[in-house]
Amino acid sequence: MQKLQAEIRSCVGKKPKVGTNDIAKLTYLKMVVKETLRMHPAGPLLIPRETIQQCKIGGNNGYTIYPKTRVLVNVYAIGRDPNNWKNPHVFYPERFEDNNIDFKGNHFELLPFGAGRRICPGLAMAIGTIEFTLANLLYCFDWELPGGMKREDMSMEEQGGITIHKKTPLQLVPIKYNCQVLLAAVILGEDKFPSSSVLCFVSSTVII
Ligand code: HEM
C-alpha cells in the first residue's frame, strides 16, 4: 500500500485530489488492480457457454468436449493456477512489470471480465471507476486497522455466490493525509467526516 501511495503522491504533487488525467501515469496502480482482479475476480465463473462443435482440451490426455455441452469457465481457478502464475496465492503486483498481460479477453490466464462476444461490456467503466476511486482514497488518506488489530488478524475469506465478496467486511480507520483540500471534505463536509471515523468497505477488491 505504501508503494502505491508513494507513486500516487509523487505523481499528483500538491493538488487537492487525483484528476482523471493523472491516472494514465500511475503504472503501479494498474498493476495492483490487475493483481486484485486475478486473486479476487468479482465473478468466479463466467456466464455459461454451450459448445457448437466437438473439441479437445488439455492435449492428448485431456478431455473431449461434445457439441451442446454446457461449459462453465472457472476464472477464479485460472487466476490461481500454478501452471500460469508463480506463487499464485501471493499478492504480488510486480508480476505484471515485464509483460503485457491484461484483462481485455486476449490473455486467457487473466479473465476477470470474461472473453469473446460475451465479454463484460462494462469493462472500461469498471476499470475507470476502480482506478479513480482507489487512487483518490489512497491519495487523501493513510489507512490503519482499528483497535490495535494486526494485519494477520484480517480475514481475506470470501463469501461465494454468483459474485463473491468479503465474508467479513473490511474496517479501516482513515487518517487524513496532509494535502491541501481533502476529497472527503469536498464530498461530505469536514465536520461530518472526522479522522477517527471507521469506514467499512464491503467489497471484493481489497488491498492492504
Ligand atoms: C469490477 C467490475 C466488473 C467485473 C469484474 C465484471 C465482470 C463480468 C464478467 C466476468 C462477465 C461475464 C463475461 C463472460 O462470460 O465472458 C460480465 C458480464 C456483464 N457485465 Fe460486467 N463486470 C464488472 C462491471 C460491470 C459494469 C460496471 C457493468 C455495466 C455498467 C457491467 C455489465 C455487464 C453486462 C451487461 C454483462 C453481460 C454481458 C453479456 O452477457 O453479453 N459489468 N461482467
Ligand roster: protoporphyrin IX containing FE
CATH architecture of the largest domain: Orthogonal Bundle
Identify the strand order in the major beta sheet. Answer: 5-8-9
The secondary-structure element order is: HHEEEEHHEEEEHE
What is the CATH third-level topology name of the largest domain? Cytochrome p450
User: Mean of the pLDDT scores?
Assistant: 87
Number of helices: 5
Radius of gyration: 20 Å
Flag low-confidence runs: 181-208
Tell me roughly what share of residues is in helical segments: 25-40%
GO molecular function: heme binding; iron ion binding; monooxygenase activity; oxidoreductase activity, acting on paired donors, with incorporation or reduction of molecular oxygen
Protein name: Cytochrome P450
Subcellular location: Membrane
InterPro entries: CYP450_71D (IPR052306), Cyt_P450 (IPR001128), Cyt_P450_CS (IPR017972), Cyt_P450_E_grp-IV (IPR002403), Cyt_P450_sf (IPR036396)
Q: Would you give an account of this structure?
A:
This protein is α+β, with helices and mostly antiparallel strands. The protein folds into two domains: 2-43 and 74-201, Cytochrome P450 (Cytochrome p450), CATH 1.10.630; 47-72, no CATH class. It is 25% helix and 13% strand. The protein is built from five helices and nine strands, in the order H-H-E-E-E-E-H-H-E-E-E-E-H-E. The protein has helices spanning 2-12, 27-39, 75-79, 123-140, 183-188; strands at residues 49-50, 55-57, 63-65, 70-71, 141-144, 158-159, 165-166, 170-176, 199-201. The strands form four sheets. The chain has a three-stranded antiparallel sheet. The longest helix is centred in the middle third of the chain and has 18 residues, at 123-140. The protein is elongated, with a radius of gyration of 20 Å. The protein starts with a helix and ends in a 7-residue tail after the last strand. It comes from Nyssa sinensis. InterPro entries: CYP450_71D (IPR052306), Cyt_P450 (IPR001128), Cyt_P450_CS (IPR017972), Cyt_P450_E_grp-IV (IPR002403), Cyt_P450_sf (IPR036396). Belongs to the cytochrome P450 family. Heme binds at residue 120. Its main location: membrane.
